[in-house]
Amino acid sequence: MNDKEEALLHCQLLRMARGEEEALEALYQTLAPWVFALIHRILKNPEVAKEVLQDTFLRVYQQAGRVRIYV
């Protein structure tokens, strides 16, 4: 991940922390393919991996207000 991509992720997380639901969609679009690939590689079951992916992003959204980013 380059500096520009990292800055974009930080921005999306901060927007989520402020309660902007659109930021969750942006974060999902950015990270879901990579996160899914990782989960699938570990679980070796695409259906379960999809469920875990959804649960993961739900939890990220629920905990977004607790995000602290230090630069």
TrEMBL record:
Domain RNA polymerase sigma-70 region positions: 27-68
Superkingdom per UniProt: Bacteria
GO molecular function, one term: DNA-binding transcription factor activity
InterPro entries for the chain: RNA_pol_sigma70_r2, RNA_pol_sigma_r2
Record-level GO BP terms: DNA-templated transcription initiation
Name of the protein in question: RNA polymerase sigma-70 region 2 domain-containing protein
Organism: Thermus scotoductus
